[in-house]
TrEMBL record:
Pfam families associated with the record: CDP-OH_P_transf (PF01066)
Domain of life: Bacteria
Spans traversing the lipid bilayer: 33-50, 57-74, 114-139, 160-190
Protein name: CDP-diacylglycerol--glycerol-3-phosphate 3-phosphatidyltransferase
Membrane listed as a keyword: yes
Keywords in alphabetical order: Membrane, Transferase, Transmembrane, Transmembrane helix
MF-aspect GO terms: phosphotransferase activity, for other substituted phosphate groups
A cellular component term, taken from the record's GO annotations: membrane
UniProt-listed GO biological process terms: phospholipid biosynthetic process
């Protein structure tokens, strides 16, 4: 059993409940929220890439990660609340998440001392982990969100990494965090594949 911040999602959703009625009343659609989260992530990533020395942007990244997680939760809640769940919306949500992840993770490559191959390995394994979560559907399972390094956990980890960058800690600490994230991603990938596999019932005894 591995802990993941994703397990706190029900409680987080309760905090967001007051927003739902207001969004629905204004005819805001789930896909609009998904696109907003993606475009804001791309914009923030571009800002970081253009100004990698900006302490303010790095300090603001944990806050932005929290906002992004809130938007990611709201789009699904809104889809359920307004009965607007669609296949297109599900695909858009998955694609949007991966684009947002890349936009917010890759600017770390411009930080002095960061091991770029390590960062790229983390980004690629994160993508593979989410692919495994979706591929579980092909095995007859449900979409897997197992941890310990799911989407919410990565948001926390990179928010922490951004704080280390902002306070100019030695690069060895930055790369240590990335190494831990990489190892936890391997664990997460194993968990998602294992738990997606169908469990065959034991043959009846004669």
């Amino acid at each position: 059993m591995s802990f993941s911040i994703y397990q706190l999602k029900p409680r987080f959703q309760q905090l967001l409940q007051p927003l739902l009625a207001g969004l629905a009343k204004r005819h805001i659609t789930p896909n609009q929220v998904t696109l907003l989260a993606m475009f804001l992530s791309i914009s923030y990533g571009i800002a970081l890439a253009c100004s990698p020395q900006s302490k303010g942007l790095w300090l603001g990244l944990p806050v932005f990660m929290f906002v992004r997680m809130a938007l990611n939760a709201i789009d699904g809640m809104l889809a359920n609340f307004t009965q607007q769940k669609t296949a297109f919306g599900a695909i858009l949500n998955e694609v949007g998440d991966q684009v947002s992840d890349a936009a917010l993770v890759l600017p770390f490559a411009l930080v002095t001392g960061i091991q770029v191959p390590l960062l790229i390995a983390v980004a690629m394994l994160a993508l593979l982990t989410e692919f495994a979560g979706v591929a579980a559907l092909l095995a007859g399972s449900k979409r897997r969100f197992d941890g310990p390094m799911g989407k919410s956990d990565r948001a926390f980890a990179f928010g922490l990494l951004a704080l280390l960058v902002a306070f100019q800690l030695p690069a060895i600490w930055l790369n240590a965090v990335l190494t831990i994230v990489l190892l936890l991603l391997f664990w997460t990938l194993f968990n998602r594949i294992k738990r997606a596999l169908p469990h065959h019932a034991a043959p009846p005894t004669p």
